[in-house]
What we know:
Shape of chain A: globular
Helix content of chain B: 55-70%
CATH topology of the largest domain in chain B: MetI-like fold
Largest sheet of chain A: none
Number of domains of chain A: 2
CATH topology of the largest domain in chain A: MetI-like fold
Largest sheet of chain B: none
Shape of chain B: globular
Distance between the termini of chain B: 47 Å
CATH class of the largest domain in chain B: Mainly Alpha
Radius of gyration of chain A: 25 Å
Number of helices of chain B: 16
Number of strands of chain B: 0
Order of helices and strands of chain B: HHHHHHHHHHHHHHHH
Oligomer: heterodimer
Distance between the termini of chain A: 11 Å
Structural class of chain A: mainly alpha
Amino acid sequence: MVTDSALKDETGTPDPIRLARRLERPAPTTVKDSRGYKVFTVINVVVLLGVMAITLYPFANIIAQSFSSEGFINAGQVNLVPRGFNIETYRTVMADNMFWINYRNTVVYTVVATVIAMVLTTTYAYAISKKNLRGRNFFIMVAVFTMFFNGGLIPNYVLINAIGFTNTIWAIVIPNAISVFNLLVMKAFFENMPEELEEAAAIDGLGTYRTLLRIVLPLSKAVIATMVLFYAVSFWNSWFQAFLYLDDARLYPVTVYLRNLIAGATTATSVAGGSSDGMTQVASNIQSVTMVLTVLPIICLYPFIQKYFVSGVMLGSVKG
Amino acid sequence: MSTPQNLEASSPAGGQATGTIADGAAAVAIARTGKGGYPQRSWRKTLRRDWQLYSLLVLPLIFLLIFRYLPMAGNVIAFRRFRPGSSIFGDEWVGLRYVELFINDAKFWEVFQNTLILGALGLLVVFPLPIILALLLNEVRRIWFKRLVQTISYLPHFMSIVIVAGMVFQIFSVQGTINQVITAMGGDAVNFMQRADWFRTIYISSEVWQTVGWGTILYLAALTTIDQQLYEASRIDGANRWKQTWHITLPGIRPTMVTLLVLNIGTFMAVGFEKVLLLYNPLTYPTADVISTYLYRVGILSSNFSYATAIGLFESLIGLTLILSANAISRRLVGTSLW
Lengths: 320, 339
């Protein structure tokens, strides 16, 4: 896909920040633009403004609903601006003990799962990045094959039940520990590290473990940050694993809490044909508040983490 | 059992021993005599030299074995009777019983068709949009504006499917934004989420909203690798912007387009199971129910494990065939392949 030596710095290591910056480079200017092109430029800006508006609208909508009173939402009068401004709904949701228990679960699952995933991914990626590792191609194939063929829902479900993970944190934090995409990104990064560094470490008498811990990892902070974010966001957002394997509401992550609110609201309308307005109305308020509170950490971190994600995707596509 | 001394005397100079690795003493002896020529190194010596490196592989390999390969093998319950509580590989062979069962199941073919339609719509609608958006972004000269559009359009990618589903329910609800527009224009409110004829539109719109911005990244990356001299040369030859886009930009990002198309075709059958599961309800089953949601209900909710596994295996095999053939075709036609 992208094979570009300019994406790598002097040592041959891909520089994530530079990768991200290149995407923002403006188009080359022409000496003289035709009139048609000037018209196009205006239309282009309008289209892109539209793209931004459509992207942001749903966020604005749930924020507006979260501060609106039930009556106005029910009357179909809330879109961009809160009507009947109040923070009662926030109080209601935040007074729910279960919400906080589930929120804390999400934090715990995300941290534990990310740590496990990082340990497994880093060690495997480092080992298979060594070109003189005997059996290297076999070990790469073992991982890559799982990208194209997987066990499927039922065999996985049967397995998780059989090993007794059901209704424990392990059903959430272990089964998705290695993402092959992340593994290949890390492998490509390690492969591009200058060999001299590790040769020097070997001459100084450092074994593989200490070379990895003291030389390689400190030089891989950028890629490690990217991988941690990739994993953390995917675990923060995941819900199905928990929905499938956890029965105890006290173990749910906040995504399942939210899912149950949404499902409750939809079954209420579909069963009663929309007649139980009071029921759906409250849910609509509460759903919005719960959504706002769930995405809040991601939205706050987003401006700072975005460039790492972009560079991670690009690192994955640069052929190592 | 030979002593280390005996072995040392009898083993060839290159150390080409083919004994069992369990014989640790012998391995040590051979390692002592070996000269260590790289290509002929025996596994014992390799392990002795690189054992630390191999030890790093142990945990991940155990993980892959248990959580990836064991479920793959667990697919045999498609051909075996499985009762809850029995071994994960089932009890006894029943041959193709479950395969015949789903082939004769009209409901299966209905969800199969729904899967194909949703997959095809995704490919037709969702796949080209990031290319168009990337080309538009590429024409933006003000760097802050380009950066702003990128930052905002990537945002939905970071949202949980549950959040996206929640937003869809809000916006398409009877009191939601779409119905506000419809009633403002004098129409009657539509209960979108309960209508089977609207499901595909809603599903595809939510896919577009969530994936198009993020999908531009690889195209934008490919665009930066196009040689600027090509544009200069074409300008001297009198090519306008359209011609430059058509003859230089598009061919420049073609390898990326083909690669992503191959990947998309490969995941054709795996249409967003989690999203459908969140968005559908019995009223929208006629268009919304896909293979994965059907087998979820049959398998997990009704505990027909073997039957659902047979369906799942069929789906996986189609997926594997699709990606292998798409890759072969792209290699033959445009010389780009995934591996």
